[in-house]
Design a protein that fits this description.
Elements (H helix, E strand, L loop, with lengths): L3 H15 L4 E6 L12 H8 L3 E8 L2 E7 L4 E5 L4 E6 L9 E7 L4 E6 L5 E5 L1 E4 L2 E4 L16 H9 L5 H6 L9 H11 L12 H20 L41 E5 L2 E5 L12
Antiparallel strand pairs: 1-6, 2-3, 3-4, 4-8, 5-7, 6-7, 9-10, 11-12
Protein backbone atom coordinates (compact mmCIF):
# COMPACT_ATOMS: atom_id res chain seq x y z
CA UNK A 1 0.00 0.00 0.00
CA UNK A 2 1.41 3.44 -0.87
CA UNK A 3 2.78 5.28 2.14
CA UNK A 4 3.33 9.00 2.70
CA UNK A 5 6.18 9.52 0.17
CA UNK A 6 4.33 7.73 -2.62
CA UNK A 7 1.09 9.62 -1.95
CA UNK A 8 2.95 12.93 -1.76
CA UNK A 9 4.68 12.25 -5.09
CA UNK A 10 1.25 11.75 -6.68
CA UNK A 11 -0.18 14.83 -4.94
CA UNK A 12 2.64 17.03 -6.21
CA UNK A 13 2.14 15.72 -9.71
CA UNK A 14 -1.57 16.45 -9.56
CA UNK A 15 -0.94 19.88 -8.08
CA UNK A 16 1.22 20.89 -11.03
CA UNK A 17 -1.03 19.35 -13.71
CA UNK A 18 -4.65 19.79 -12.66
CA UNK A 19 -4.89 22.70 -10.22
CA UNK A 20 -6.99 25.43 -11.84
CA UNK A 21 -8.62 23.05 -14.31
CA UNK A 22 -12.38 22.59 -14.46
CA UNK A 23 -13.90 19.12 -14.66
CA UNK A 24 -16.01 19.14 -17.82
CA UNK A 25 -17.20 15.55 -17.72
CA UNK A 26 -16.80 12.28 -15.83
CA UNK A 27 -17.33 8.65 -16.82
CA UNK A 28 -17.42 5.76 -14.36
CA UNK A 29 -17.03 2.18 -15.57
CA UNK A 30 -15.91 0.52 -12.33
CA UNK A 31 -18.57 0.66 -9.62
CA UNK A 32 -16.20 -0.59 -6.93
CA UNK A 33 -14.09 2.51 -7.48
CA UNK A 34 -16.96 4.76 -6.31
CA UNK A 35 -18.35 2.49 -3.58
CA UNK A 36 -17.27 4.93 -0.84
CA UNK A 37 -19.49 7.60 -2.38
CA UNK A 38 -22.71 6.32 -0.83
CA UNK A 39 -24.99 8.40 -3.09
CA UNK A 40 -23.78 6.39 -6.08
CA UNK A 41 -21.91 6.99 -9.35
CA UNK A 42 -24.52 9.24 -11.00
CA UNK A 43 -24.44 11.60 -8.03
CA UNK A 44 -20.64 11.66 -8.06
CA UNK A 45 -20.64 12.48 -11.78
CA UNK A 46 -23.21 15.27 -11.43
CA UNK A 47 -21.45 16.83 -8.44
CA UNK A 48 -17.99 16.75 -10.02
CA UNK A 49 -18.99 18.11 -13.42
CA UNK A 50 -18.41 21.86 -13.54
CA UNK A 51 -16.23 21.95 -10.44
CA UNK A 52 -12.79 23.55 -10.55
CA UNK A 53 -9.85 21.85 -8.85
CA UNK A 54 -8.76 24.69 -6.59
CA UNK A 55 -5.95 22.92 -4.70
CA UNK A 56 -4.61 19.56 -3.61
CA UNK A 57 -4.21 18.31 -0.06
CA UNK A 58 -2.70 15.45 1.89
CA UNK A 59 -2.45 14.25 5.47
CA UNK A 60 -0.47 11.09 6.05
CA UNK A 61 -1.50 8.60 3.38
CA UNK A 62 -4.76 10.44 2.62
CA UNK A 63 -4.98 12.71 -0.44
CA UNK A 64 -7.72 14.94 -1.79
CA UNK A 65 -8.57 17.58 -4.39
CA UNK A 66 -10.26 20.74 -3.13
CA UNK A 67 -13.19 21.75 -5.32
CA UNK A 68 -14.72 25.16 -6.09
CA UNK A 69 -17.28 26.54 -5.84
CA UNK A 70 -18.76 23.69 -3.75
CA UNK A 71 -16.06 23.78 -1.08
CA UNK A 72 -16.06 19.99 -0.99
CA UNK A 73 -13.13 17.65 -1.43
CA UNK A 74 -12.63 14.71 -3.74
CA UNK A 75 -10.88 12.12 -1.59
CA UNK A 76 -8.62 9.81 -3.59
CA UNK A 77 -8.04 6.38 -2.05
CA UNK A 78 -5.10 4.73 -3.84
CA UNK A 79 -5.59 1.42 -2.05
CA UNK A 80 -3.07 -1.23 -3.11
CA UNK A 81 -2.72 -0.37 -6.78
CA UNK A 82 -4.53 2.90 -7.50
CA UNK A 83 -2.97 5.28 -10.02
CA UNK A 84 -3.90 8.87 -10.91
CA UNK A 85 -2.70 9.37 -14.47
CA UNK A 86 -2.72 12.51 -16.61
CA UNK A 87 -3.28 11.53 -20.24
CA UNK A 88 -4.23 13.17 -23.53
CA UNK A 89 -7.75 12.13 -24.59
CA UNK A 90 -6.46 10.19 -27.60
CA UNK A 91 -4.13 8.00 -25.50
CA UNK A 92 -5.27 4.34 -25.36
CA UNK A 93 -7.43 3.71 -22.32
CA UNK A 94 -5.70 1.62 -19.68
CA UNK A 95 -7.24 -1.81 -19.06
CA UNK A 96 -8.11 -0.99 -15.46
CA UNK A 97 -9.17 2.66 -15.94
CA UNK A 98 -12.38 2.81 -13.87
CA UNK A 99 -12.92 6.59 -13.68
CA UNK A 100 -12.05 9.18 -16.33
CA UNK A 101 -12.50 12.92 -15.79
CA UNK A 102 -12.21 15.31 -18.73
CA UNK A 103 -10.50 18.60 -17.85
CA UNK A 104 -10.78 22.08 -19.33
CA UNK A 105 -7.03 21.92 -20.02
CA UNK A 106 -7.75 19.33 -22.70
CA UNK A 107 -6.25 16.49 -20.67
CA UNK A 108 -7.89 13.59 -18.89
CA UNK A 109 -7.46 12.57 -15.26
CA UNK A 110 -7.75 8.79 -15.11
CA UNK A 111 -8.12 6.60 -12.03
CA UNK A 112 -6.57 3.22 -12.83
CA UNK A 113 -6.80 0.45 -10.24
CA UNK A 114 -5.97 -3.17 -11.00
CA UNK A 115 -6.90 -4.58 -7.59
CA UNK A 116 -9.89 -2.22 -7.05
CA UNK A 117 -9.22 -1.51 -3.38
CA UNK A 118 -9.07 2.24 -4.03
CA UNK A 119 -11.55 4.78 -5.31
CA UNK A 120 -13.00 8.30 -5.27
CA UNK A 121 -15.52 9.85 -2.90
CA UNK A 122 -16.82 13.33 -2.13
CA UNK A 123 -16.75 14.79 1.37
CA UNK A 124 -17.38 18.07 3.15
CA UNK A 125 -14.49 19.89 4.80
CA UNK A 126 -14.02 20.68 8.51
CA UNK A 127 -11.50 22.65 10.56
CA UNK A 128 -9.31 20.59 12.90
CA UNK A 129 -6.59 22.28 14.97
CA UNK A 130 -6.49 25.23 12.59
CA UNK A 131 -6.31 23.15 9.40
CA UNK A 132 -9.14 22.46 6.95
CA UNK A 133 -9.39 18.75 6.08
CA UNK A 134 -12.09 16.43 4.73
CA UNK A 135 -14.38 15.08 7.47
CA UNK A 136 -13.29 11.43 6.92
CA UNK A 137 -9.68 12.52 7.53
CA UNK A 138 -10.38 14.55 10.69
CA UNK A 139 -9.28 11.73 13.02
CA UNK A 140 -5.89 11.30 11.31
CA UNK A 141 -2.91 12.73 13.17
CA UNK A 142 -0.41 15.10 11.60
CA UNK A 143 2.55 13.50 9.87
CA UNK A 144 6.27 14.34 10.31
CA UNK A 145 6.29 16.39 7.08
CA UNK A 146 3.44 18.62 8.27
CA UNK A 147 4.73 22.13 9.17
CA UNK A 148 2.57 22.02 12.32
CA UNK A 149 3.82 18.60 13.43
CA UNK A 150 4.61 18.71 17.17
CA UNK A 151 7.28 16.09 17.87
CA UNK A 152 7.20 16.67 21.64
CA UNK A 153 3.46 16.07 21.81
CA UNK A 154 3.74 12.96 19.63
CA UNK A 155 6.52 11.55 21.79
CA UNK A 156 4.27 12.05 24.81
CA UNK A 157 1.46 10.11 23.14
CA UNK A 158 3.80 7.30 22.11
CA UNK A 159 5.42 7.13 25.56
CA UNK A 160 1.97 6.57 27.10
CA UNK A 161 1.40 3.41 25.04
CA UNK A 162 2.11 -0.07 26.39
CA UNK A 163 1.93 -1.61 22.90
CA UNK A 164 4.85 -2.68 20.72
CA UNK A 165 6.57 0.36 19.24
CA UNK A 166 6.04 -0.73 15.63
CA UNK A 167 2.30 -1.08 16.22
CA UNK A 168 2.23 2.39 17.75
CA UNK A 169 4.02 4.19 14.92
CA UNK A 170 1.74 2.45 12.41
CA UNK A 171 -1.31 3.87 14.22
CA UNK A 172 -2.42 6.75 11.99
CA UNK A 173 -4.23 8.44 14.90
CA UNK A 174 -0.91 8.73 16.78
CA UNK A 175 1.43 9.69 13.94
CA UNK A 176 0.34 9.64 10.31
CA UNK A 177 2.03 8.56 7.11
CA UNK A 178 4.23 5.71 8.35
CA UNK A 179 3.52 2.30 6.84
CA UNK A 180 5.26 -1.04 7.08
CA UNK A 181 8.19 -0.18 4.80
CA UNK A 182 9.19 3.09 6.44
CA UNK A 183 8.49 1.76 9.95
CA UNK A 184 11.11 -0.95 9.41
CA UNK A 185 13.54 1.57 7.91
CA UNK A 186 13.11 4.07 10.78
CA UNK A 187 13.44 1.35 13.43
CA UNK A 188 16.61 0.05 11.74
CA UNK A 189 18.12 3.53 11.64
CA UNK A 190 17.21 4.12 15.30
CA UNK A 191 18.53 0.65 16.28
CA UNK A 192 15.23 -0.25 17.97
CA UNK A 193 13.50 -3.61 17.68
CA UNK A 194 9.86 -3.25 16.62
CA UNK A 195 8.65 -5.46 19.48
CA UNK A 196 10.02 -3.16 22.16
CA UNK A 197 7.24 -1.70 24.29
CA UNK A 198 6.72 1.98 23.47
CA UNK A 199 6.49 3.02 27.12
CA UNK A 200 9.85 1.33 27.85
CA UNK A 201 11.72 3.57 25.43
CA UNK A 202 13.27 6.82 26.59
CA UNK A 203 12.02 10.11 25.26
CA UNK A 204 15.36 10.80 23.49
CA UNK A 205 15.09 7.40 21.79
CA UNK A 206 11.55 8.20 20.65
CA UNK A 207 12.61 11.61 19.34
CA UNK A 208 15.44 9.87 17.47
CA UNK A 209 12.98 7.36 16.01
CA UNK A 210 10.59 10.08 14.82
CA UNK A 211 13.50 12.01 13.33
CA UNK A 212 14.63 8.94 11.41
CA UNK A 213 11.06 8.32 10.20
CA UNK A 214 10.97 11.86 8.82
CA UNK A 215 14.44 11.58 7.27
CA UNK A 216 13.74 8.27 5.53
CA UNK A 217 10.44 9.54 4.12
CA UNK A 218 12.08 12.74 2.85
CA UNK A 219 14.79 10.64 1.17
CA UNK A 220 12.13 8.39 -0.36
CA UNK A 221 10.20 11.42 -1.56
CA UNK A 222 13.32 12.75 -3.28
CA UNK A 223 13.66 9.38 -5.04
CA UNK A 224 10.06 9.42 -6.23
CA UNK A 225 8.88 6.86 -3.67
CA UNK A 226 9.34 3.12 -3.39
CA UNK A 227 8.20 0.88 -6.25
CA UNK A 228 8.42 -2.91 -6.07
CA UNK A 229 6.29 -3.42 -9.20
CA UNK A 230 4.53 -1.42 -11.91
CA UNK A 231 1.43 -0.76 -9.80
CA UNK A 232 2.78 2.32 -7.98
CA UNK A 233 3.58 5.14 -10.41
CA UNK A 234 3.34 8.93 -10.44
CA UNK A 235 0.95 10.91 -12.67
CA UNK A 236 3.29 10.43 -15.65
CA UNK A 237 3.41 6.66 -15.20
CA UNK A 238 6.95 6.63 -13.80
CA UNK A 239 8.04 4.42 -10.89
CA UNK A 240 10.03 5.53 -7.87
CA UNK A 241 13.41 4.01 -7.11
CA UNK A 242 13.90 4.33 -3.33
CA UNK A 243 13.74 0.51 -3.07
CA UNK A 244 17.41 0.60 -4.09
CA UNK A 245 18.22 2.47 -0.87
CA UNK A 246 16.35 0.30 1.64
CA UNK A 247 18.42 -0.93 4.58
CA UNK A 248 15.85 -3.21 6.25
CA UNK A 249 12.63 -3.88 4.38
CA UNK A 250 12.80 -6.89 2.06
CA UNK A 251 16.43 -7.70 2.92
CA UNK A 252 16.02 -11.04 4.68
CA UNK A 253 19.20 -13.11 4.47
CA UNK A 254 21.35 -10.18 3.35
CA UNK A 255 24.11 -8.60 5.48
CA UNK A 256 23.17 -5.63 7.63
CA UNK A 257 24.55 -2.44 6.05
CA UNK A 258 25.74 -1.30 9.48
CA UNK A 259 27.23 -4.37 11.23
CA UNK A 260 27.21 -7.19 8.68
CA UNK A 261 24.92 -9.54 10.61
CA UNK A 262 22.34 -11.48 8.58
CA UNK A 263 19.04 -9.61 8.38
CA UNK A 264 15.97 -11.41 9.74
CA UNK A 265 12.30 -11.44 8.87
CA UNK A 266 9.39 -12.28 11.18
CA UNK A 267 5.62 -12.28 10.83
CA UNK A 268 3.88 -9.12 11.94
CA UNK A 269 0.14 -8.34 11.69
CA UNK A 270 -0.34 -10.43 8.52
CA UNK A 271 2.75 -8.74 7.09
CA UNK A 272 6.48 -8.96 7.74
CA UNK A 273 9.04 -7.14 9.82
CA UNK A 274 12.67 -6.94 8.76
CA UNK A 275 15.41 -6.17 11.27
CA UNK A 276 19.03 -6.75 12.24
CA UNK A 277 19.28 -9.16 15.20
CA UNK A 278 22.54 -7.57 16.33
CA UNK A 279 21.77 -3.85 15.93
CA UNK A 280 18.13 -4.16 16.97
CA UNK A 281 18.18 -6.32 20.06
CA UNK A 282 14.97 -8.26 20.64
CA UNK A 283 13.33 -7.44 24.00
CA UNK A 284 13.57 -10.05 26.71
CA UNK A 285 10.37 -12.05 27.19
CA UNK A 286 8.32 -11.10 30.24
CA UNK A 287 8.34 -13.61 33.09
Amino acid sequence: MPELPEVEVVRRGLDSHVTGSTITGVSVTGLRSVRRHVAGPLDLISQLTGQTIAATGRRGKFMWLELAPSGQSLIVHLGMSGQMLIQPPDAPLEKHAHIVAALSSGQQLRFVDQRTFGGWSLADMVEVDGTIVPIPVAHIARDPLDPKFDAHAVVGRIKAKDSEIKRVILDQTVIAGIGNIYADEALWRAEIHGRRTASSLTRPALHRLIGHARDVMVAALDAGGTSFDALYVNVNGQSGYFDRSLHAYGREGEPCDRCGAVMHREAFMNRSSYFCPRCQTRPRPKR
